[in-house]
């Protein structure tokens, strides 16, 4: 059922213009620090990985350097795996899980895979705890060559410059209660559309690429994460966030058609994780651990089935 829901910015039924975007930006104060939370951990890893600057964002004079970490030396005989976090800056365990993987488990794959890890794709969104970037654009629907999002263009260029093909890409995300209370209503207001309410699943799930699904790969990750935190059940309609559940804890989106981050490589094995940090059954530590478990299980499966 579709219902009209008031959002405090804009006129119902009319898409936002620059005036409304300015009003929205005024409601987005800095709430945490990329320079304090993320960059020192990146710098501390420089003795174990190559720190690769791959661009910088400049939003109204606020500067955000972008970094990837890469295992070194690159071995052309080994497959390459990409891990991305913080495409939606507010999804905290995506950023922290990527860093925790580098700090605690990445060494296990030395001599087995070339790793490229991008812990925080959208630092402006990280600081504002927001899904969008400065221009009220959702990066995870804009990974295409002509993207209006600077975050997306920078990551696409980074990936294009990596030697050798990718075997795996895992993109670390969360689904939060604020998706329903703030971000979906904001999206409807921004686009001048009615808001259609949905439910938030309680638990971890995965989004497979519906254009090239790998069901066994997804289930290997689900099995590993289930040992850390609970897996989201389907709702009464057999869906998770409006998409049919194709296997326990797994739905599918067409990654390229939706211009999702999971489409930035031609990797055979790819997935988008979705942690639920607002569950009373999960702590922040469990959420981070679930992301690490997902990365490791994905790598293990991909390397065994390359």
Automatic annotation (TrEMBL):
Region annotated Disordered, chain positions: 1-28
Gene3D superfamilies named in the record: Zn peptidases
Annotated GO MF terms: metallocarboxypeptidase activity; zinc ion binding
UniProt biased composition (Basic and acidic residues): 16-25
Domain Peptidase M14: 30-306
Gene Ontology biological-process entries: proteolysis
InterPro entries per UniProt: Peptidase_M14
Family according to the record: Belongs to the peptidase M14 family.
Protein name per UniProt: M14 family metallocarboxypeptidase
């Amino acid at each position: 059922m579709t219902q009209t829901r008031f959002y405090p910015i804009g006129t119902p039924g009319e898409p936002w213009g620059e005036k409304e975007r300015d009003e929205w930006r005024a409601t987005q104060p800095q709430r945490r620090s990329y320079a304090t939370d993320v960059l020192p951990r990146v710098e501390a890893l420089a003795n174990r990985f190559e720190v690769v600057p791959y661009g910088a964002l400049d939003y109204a004079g606020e500067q955000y350097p972008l970094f990837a970490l890469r295992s070194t030396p690159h071995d052309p005989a080994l497959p390459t795996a990409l891990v991305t976090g913080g495409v939606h800056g507010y999804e905290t365990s995506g950023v922290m899980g990527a860093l925790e993987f580098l700090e605690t488990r990445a060494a296990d794959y030395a001599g087995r895979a070339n790793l490229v890890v991008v812990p925080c794709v959208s630092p402006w969104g990280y600081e504002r705890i927001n899904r969008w970037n400065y221009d009220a654009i959702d990066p995870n629907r804009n990974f295409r060559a002509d993207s209006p999002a600077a975050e997306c263009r920078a990551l696409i260029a980074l990936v294009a410059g990596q030697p050798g093909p990718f075997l795996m890409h895992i993109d670390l995300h969360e689904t939060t209660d604020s998706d329903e209370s703030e971000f979906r209503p904001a999206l409807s207001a921004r686009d001048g559309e009615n808001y259609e309410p949905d439910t938030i699943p309680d638990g971890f799930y995965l989004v497979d690429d519906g254009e090239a699904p790998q069901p066994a790969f997804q289930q290997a990750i689900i099995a590993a994460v289930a040992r850390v935190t609970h897996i989201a059940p389907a709702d009464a309609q057999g869906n998770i966030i409006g998409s049919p559940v194709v296997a326990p804890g797994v739905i599918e989106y067409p990654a390229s058609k939706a211009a999702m981050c999971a489409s930035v490589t031609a990797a055979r094995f790819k997935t988008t994780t979705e942690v639920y940090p607002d569950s009373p059954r999960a702590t922040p530590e469990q959420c981070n651990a679930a992301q690490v478990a997902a990365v490791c299980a994905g790598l293990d499966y991909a390397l065994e089935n390359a």
